[in-house]
Specification:
GO molecular function, one term: pyridoxal phosphate binding
Protein name: Putative succinyldiaminopimelate transaminase DapC
Number of strands: 12
Cofactor: pyridoxal 5'-phosphate
Number of helices: 14
Shape: globular
Keywords: Aminotransferase, Pyridoxal phosphate, Transferase
Bound molecules: glutamine
InterPro entries: Aminotransferase_I/II_large, Kynurenine-oxoglutarate_AT, PyrdxlP-dep_Trfase, PyrdxlP-dep_Trfase_major, PyrdxlP-dep_Trfase_small
Order of helices and strands: HHEHHEHEHEHEHEEEHHHEHEEHEH
CATH superfamily of the largest domain: Type I PLP-dependent aspartate aminotransferase-like (Major domain)
CATH topology of the largest domain: Aspartate Aminotransferase, domain 2
Largest sheet: 7 strands, mixed
């Protein structure tokens, strides 16, 4: 393995899902829903397959999907996006992240990232040779430490890499918090890359009463922001791997410059179906969020029953707990022992921190699973010794 990859361990999501399959444990680890997305969208994909959408799509994405993404940004956020120059379709948000970082960050550039970070950010930053500065969302509240952020963003910063709603903590940044990020970005002439895949999965009791706020909507931010999202989480189609980036043409061009050498293009028959989802099932994600909030409460109540005190997430489909309440000093050790002792799999989040202390005892539980799966998982936890 090349030196730029050799020090990066296999992704914990695959590791823990494999553990669940091997042991037959209830999988509250990797974030994929038990139930598929809307039937009309799946029918649209079948129709596209049957009607011959089986050769390369344009690298930038099929026109119908780019137009639907532009309408989505208009409808939800009032953003005017040119579908021909300000949208690029990617192979999931993961490729949008890769394309954005490879396209905009040079070796030695500084990138400010929230920690706990989604693991692919750091792998990509390492592949780019970037220097990262992590700003910590600290337990138990997991809010953004604005003073640490002010220290981290300097004239050496090239990019602030944001994620809100935030995986794994469930924090949704408020307009006031985002304004601090925006002010720093403008002051230091920094780009913002923002992963908003959980944009529609925000609960009614979030601190941000207005729900998800894209930082691109703040004054002065459109021209310096790349906004990334996907169909995976909003429409429960994580296996389709259709994502996108929107932003000013030069930033979208930078993503495309890298993307053309990564996958070039993908998902030709899926792209028209995703356009169908955005245009014809606009209310589906909000219904999913309402339904998820019930399952969130079911999971959190069960975790309390098992002796844990989850931070009730404001968005996403994950809840994080400090497992020292169960007498475990190390969350990863607990997660490795848990299938055997309780028949449950969860994700240790210590690997998502540079500050090893801050994450040592934290474990993430997914509630995008069927209610009876969650009920069985927490029953097993409460019964374990
Ligand atoms: N995004 C999902 C999660 O956080 C899946 C991650 C993955 O498998 N790479 O669990």
């Amino acid at each position: 393995t090349a030196r730029r990859l050799a020090h990066i361990p296999p992704t914990v999501f695959s590791e823990m899902s494999a553990l669940a399959v091997r042991t037959g444990a209830v999988n509250l680890g990797q974030g994929f829903p038990d139930a598929d997305g809307p039937a009309s969208v799946i029918a649209a994909a079948a129709e596209a397959l049957a009607s011959g959408a089986n050769q390369y799509a344009p690298g930038i994405g099929v026109p119908a999907l780019r137009a639907a993404i532009a309408r989505h940004q208009q409808r939800h956020y009032g953003l005017e996006v040119d579908p021909d120059t300000e949208v690029v379709v990617t192979t999931g948000c993961t490729e949008a992240i890769a394309g954005a970082l490879l396209g905009l960050v040079d070796a030695g550039d500084e990138v400010v990232v929230l920690e706990p970070y989604y693991d692919s950010y750091v792998a990509m930053l390492d592949m780019c040779g970037a220097r990262r500065r992590a700003v910590t969302l600290r337990a138990p509240a997991f809010r953004l430490d604005l003073d640490q952020l002010r220290e981290a963003v300097t004239d050496r910063t090239r990019v602030i890499l944001l994620n809100s709603p935030h995986n794994p903590t469930g924090t949704v940044l408020t307009r006031d918090e985002l304004q601090v990020v925006a002010d720093l970005a403008v002051e230091h002439d920094v780009l913002v890359i923002t992963d908003e895949v959980y944009e529609h999965l925000v609960f009614t009791d979030a601190a941000s009463a207005e729900g998800h706020v894209p930082i691109a909507t703040l004054p002065g931010m459109w021209e310096r922001t790349l906004t990334l999202s996907s169909v995976g989480k909003s429409y429960s189609l994580t296996g389709w791997k259709v994502g996108w980036a929107t932003g000013p043409a030069p930033l979208v061009q930078a993503v495309l410059a890298a993307k053309q050498w990564l996958t070039f293009t993908s998902g030709a028959p899926l792209q028209p179906a995703v356009a169908h989802a955005l245009d014809h099932e606009p209310d589906w994600p909000a219904e999913l969020a309402r339904d998820l909030q019930v399952r969130r409460d079911l999971l959190c109540a069960g975790l309390v029953e098992a002796g844990l005190t989850p931070r009730v997430p404001e968005g996403t489909y994950f809840a994080t707990t400090d497992v020292s309440h169960l007498g475990w000093a190390d969350g990863r050790e607990l997660c490795l022992a848990l299938p055997e002792r309780a028949g449950v799999v969860a994700i240790p989040t210590q690997g998502f921190y540079d500050d090893a202390e801050a994450g040592l005892q934290l474990v993430r539980w997914a509630f995008c699973k069927d209610a009876d799966v969650i009920t069985e998982g927490v029953r097993r936890l409460a019964a374990a010794d």
